[in-house]
């Protein structure tokens, strides 16, 4: 029989907040984890944490998909990792319902809970959105999108039907925040680069449309740099439609609120996020925006022994009274640090501290050697901003192992042309085998 566990800490989600909280607890509670007086469990459907700011570079083929994730079991050797999802929280009974990757759901008792389940794409009931739409939050989506863009170039090159060609070469991105602008800029850059290998496609044949409901792009870098980004994108031939909404996309026929209509084979939806659905499956308090009601000390409001942070939590911004912290990695990483320290304080019967961080601005990559930045009031554009984007994210990506791999990928890309092959077949690995079986039957 193992040592008696006095305190079981369950962390729901192994992303930014979940992984960094567990990492800090692993460091600070080394003795307790060794003698068994504390046990930590992280639950996540995946066995890795995704470094989301690198997804656009992974989609563009500058980074290997495996290098933009951190394997949880390797990073957290003293923590139990369970793969599956938490489907319900019963905080009154201190139980979470856990549905493992395979098999029957079971209840897991805990003493302390950390809700770090992040967010999912916020969609609208737009006709046909799922016909051609894809989100941009996971490694799977980023790589599928890369394969799709390259595959559409193959389709366009190989068809003699002008309609099919036009449709294949039309790409739409809805939402001009971080994710949308970076994904569009990186993919457009990759597609432009790839056209040199095609006989019948020039960069001018590929149409990129960015649709944004408000009157600005990339609000994360402020109005001045946002305006500069808008000009940049337009100079590159990207059609940016501000104060415009997607009205329908049925069967790939895109209709915009400004009356524009066209056919497209690919639509990327990055128009905001909403908290992971698990936050409403249980007895935790929810605020008016559907997030977990959270205090400035990162505890769940009105409860004991429950903590929350990141995209799933409505954390009051003490530097900006009346406002909430925006759902971004800048807050998530810093909140994880305070949250873990508050758990340790709580275990030791000490006073908890408030989370306080003033948003410092942001950096964004806009394709190879292009970027925009506004950090601590320093405004950069072009190559300097791109360099800052890379160095900043390199310093932030978890583990030395990942940092080295990311640098190796970038270095290779410096000396060799980027990979422009579509491996869409990987999404249907059994097709070839099934066809072989079917051909045997016919014989
Ligand atoms: C493309 C892209 C680019 C971005 N770029 C930037 C940037 O440059 N700078 C910046 O500051 N921010 C950026 N962000 C935002 C940033 O990535 C998020 O704000 C951050 O990941 C939030 O951290 P989190 O821990 O709350 O959620 P996540 O990191 O998303 O982690 C949530 C985890 O919970 C798991 N989970 C969900 N539901 C359950 C469940 N029911 N049970 C168990 N586990 C569950 C998920 O699998 C996931 O692993 C970007 C986001 C995207 C999509």
UniProtKB/TrEMBL annotation:
<dbReference type="InterPro" id="IPR045024">
    <property type="entry name" value="NDH-2"/>
</dbReference>
<keyword id="KW-0285">Flavoprotein</keyword>
<keyword id="KW-0520">NAD</keyword>
<dbReference type="InterPro" id="IPR023753">
    <property type="entry name" value="FAD/NAD-binding_dom"/>
</dbReference>
<dbReference type="InterPro" id="IPR036188">
    <property type="entry name" value="FAD/NAD-bd_sf"/>
</dbReference>
<comment type="similarity">
    <text>Belongs to the NADH dehydrogenase family.</text>
</comment>
<keyword id="KW-0560">Oxidoreductase</keyword>
<keyword id="KW-0274">FAD</keyword>
<protein>
    <submittedName>
        <fullName>NAD(P)/FAD-dependent oxidoreductase</fullName>
        <ecNumber>1.6.5.-</ecNumber>
    </submittedName>
</protein>
<dbReference type="Pfam" id="PF07992">
    <property type="entry name" value="Pyr_redox_2"/>
</dbReference>
<dbReference type="GO" id="GO:0016491">
    <property type="term" value="F:oxidoreductase activity"/>
</dbReference>
<feature type="domain" description="FAD/NAD(P)-binding">
    <location>
        <begin position="8"/>
        <end position="335"/>
    </location>
</feature>
């Amino acid at each position: 029989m193992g040592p008696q566990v006095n305190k079981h800490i369950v962390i729901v989600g192994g992303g930014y907040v979940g992984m960094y909280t567990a990492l800090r607890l692993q460091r600070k509670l080394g003795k307790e984890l060794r003698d068994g007086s504390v046990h930590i469990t992280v639950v996540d459907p995946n066995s890795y944490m995704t470094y989301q700011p690198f997804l656009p570079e992974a989609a563009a083929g500058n980074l290997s998909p495996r290098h933009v994730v951190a394997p949880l079991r390797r990073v957290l050797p003293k923590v139990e990792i369970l793969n599956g999802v938490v489907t319900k929280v019963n905080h009154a009974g201190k139980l979470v319902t856990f549905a493992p990757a395979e098999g029957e759901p079971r209840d897991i008792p805990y003493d302390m809970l950390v809700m770090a389940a992040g967010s999912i794409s916020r969609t609208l009931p737009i006709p046909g959105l799922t016909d051609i739409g894809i989100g941009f939050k996971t490694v799977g989506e980023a790589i599928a999108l890369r394969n799709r863009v390259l595959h559409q170039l193959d389709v366009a090159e190989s068809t003699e039907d002008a309609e099919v060609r036009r449709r294949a070469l039309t790409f739409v991105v809805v939402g001009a925040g971080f994710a949308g602008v970076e994904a569009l800029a990186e993919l457009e850059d990759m597609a432009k680069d790839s056209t040199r290998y095609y006989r019948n496609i020039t960069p001018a044949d590929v149409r990129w449309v960015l649709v944004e409901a408000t009157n600005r792009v990339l609000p994360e870098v402020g109005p001045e740099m946002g305006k500069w980004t808008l000009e940049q994108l337009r100079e590159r031939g990207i059609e940016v439609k501000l104060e415009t909404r997607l009205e329908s996309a049925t069967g790939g026929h895109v209709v915009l609120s400004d009356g524009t209509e066209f056919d497209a084979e690919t639509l990327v939806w990055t128009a905001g996020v909403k908290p992971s659905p698990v936050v409403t499956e249980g007895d935790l308090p929810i605020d008016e925006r559907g997030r977990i009601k959270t205090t400035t000390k990162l505890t769940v409001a009105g409860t004991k022994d429950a903590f929350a942070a990141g995209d799933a939590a409505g954390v009051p911004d003490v530097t900006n009274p009346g406002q909430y912290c925006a759902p971004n990695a800048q807050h998530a990483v810093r909140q994880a640090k305070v949250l873990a320290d508050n758990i340790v304080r709580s275990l030791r019967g000490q006073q908890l501290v408030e989370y306080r961080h003033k948003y410092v601005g942001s950096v964004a990559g806009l394709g190879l050697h292009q970027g925009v930045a506004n950090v601590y009031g320093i405004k950069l554009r072009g190559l300097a901003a791109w360099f800052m984007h890379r160095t900043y994210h390199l310093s932030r990506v978890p583990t030395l192992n990942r940092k080295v791999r990311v640098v190796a990928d970038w270095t290779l890309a410096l000396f060799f042309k980027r990979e422009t092959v579509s491996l869409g077949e990987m999404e249907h690995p059994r097709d070839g085998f099934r066809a072989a079986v079917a051909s045997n039957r016919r014989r």
